[in-house]
Write a structure and sequence with these properties.
single chain; 6-stranded mixed sheet; 24% strand; EC 3.1.11.2; Exodeoxyribonuclease III; ExoIII-like
Length: 256
C-alpha cells in the first residue's frame, strides 16, 4: 500500500502536474493540501477519471484539504480538527481506508511571529496534540500526514541560522511538535533515512530548488501499530522541477 501527501499550492492551477504525477507513480491513497478552491470547484471528475475517489474540504482562495483513494470512496471520519468550533479554516480531514485512519492536515504557517497568526498556530498544534492522543487511545492503526509547517531539527533546513525567528522553526513550534511525537508517533522519513539531507519544500525565489536550499515540513507520522508495516519512504523531488509545479514535492510511504 503506497500513501502519498502533496501540498499542491492550488489544485486547479496544478491539475496537469498532479494528474501526470498520479499517472507516473500510482499511489493508492493521496492526501492533498492547499487546494485554494471552494467546495464546488474541486476537480473530482478529473481525479475520478484518473482512478481516484475523493473527499475534500474546500475554502475560497486559501487552505483546503482532500483525501484520494483507489480503493473506492474514503469513509470520512472527521472534517475539522476538534477543539475550536469557531475555527473556519479548512485544514483537516480524516478518513478510514483499508482499516487505517488517515488524517490529512495543513497546519498554519504562523508568520509573522510573534503575533496573532503565531498564536493561532500554537493553539492549532495544541488541538492536534489532543486529537492525536484521542486517536492513539483507540488502538487503531493511524497515520497523520500533510504539510505540518514545522521544521523539526536543524538537519531539516538549509542554513538553519537564518530561520531562528521564523514560525516554522521557533522553539515554541518545535517543542509542540516534540510533545506530539512523544505520544508514540514515528516520523516515517527519518525512520527510513535517519542521516540524509531531505527536503520537501523549496521557495520559488532565489533559485532555491536549483541550490537545494529547502525545508522538510511535509511529514508522515505513524502510530505504533503502523510502524512495523513501514517498508520504504521517500520524496518525489523531481516533481518540484516540472513546469508550473508546486513549491512542495510529493512525499510517500509504502506499507507491507
Amino acid at each position: 500500500m503506497k500513501i502519498a501527501t502533496y501540498n499542491v499550492n492550488s489544485i486547479n492551477a496544478r491539475l496537469p502536474v498532479v494528474l501526470r504525477w498520479l499517472g507516473e507513480t500510482q499511489p493508492d491513497v493521496v492526501c492533498l493540501q492547499e487546494l485554494k478552491a471552494i467546495q464546488e470547484n474541486f476537480p473530482a471528475e478529473a481525479l475520478l477519471d484518473a482512478g481516484y475517489h475523493a473527499i475534500w474540504h474546500g475554502q475560497k482562495s486559501w487552505n483546503g484539504v482532500a483525501i484520494l483513494s483507489r480503493y473506492g470512496q474514503p469513509e470520512e471520519t472527521c472534517r475539522a480538527l476538534p477543539g475550536d468550533p469557531e475555527d473556519s479554516h479548512s485544514r483537516y480531514i480524516e478518513a478510514k481506508i483499508n482499516e487505517i485512519i488517515i488524517g490529512c492536515l495543513y497546519l498554519p504557517n504562523g508568520n509573522p511571529a510573534p503575533g496573532p497568526k503565531f498564536d493561532y498556530k500554537l493553539r492549532w498544534l495544541d488541538r492536534l496534540i489532543a486529537h492525536g492522543q484521542t486517536l492513539l487511545s483507540q488502538k487503531a492503526p493511524v497515520i497523520l500526514t500533510g504539510d505540518f509547517n514545522v521544521i523539526p531539527t536543524e538537519m531539516d533546513v538549509y542554513k538553519p541560522e537564518r530561520w531562528t525567528d521564523d514560525a516554522l522553526f521557533r522553539p515554541e513550534t518545535r517543542e509542540a511538535f516534540r510533545r506530539l511525537m512523544a505520544q508514540g508517533w514515528t516520523d516515517a522519513i527519518r525512520s527510513v533515512h535517519p542521516d540524509e539531507t531531505i527536503y520537501t519544500f523549496w521557495d520559488y525565489f532565489r533559485n532555491a530548488f536549483g541550490r537545494n536550499a529547502g525545508l522538510r515540513i511535509d511529514h508522515f507520522l505513524l502510530s505504533p501499530s503502523v510502524k512495523p508495516s513501514l517498508k520504504s519512504a521517500g520524496v518525489d523531488r523531481y516533481v518540484r522541477g516540472w513546469e508550473k509545479t508546486s513549491d512542495h514535492a510529493p512525499v510517500w510511504i509504502e506499507l507491507s
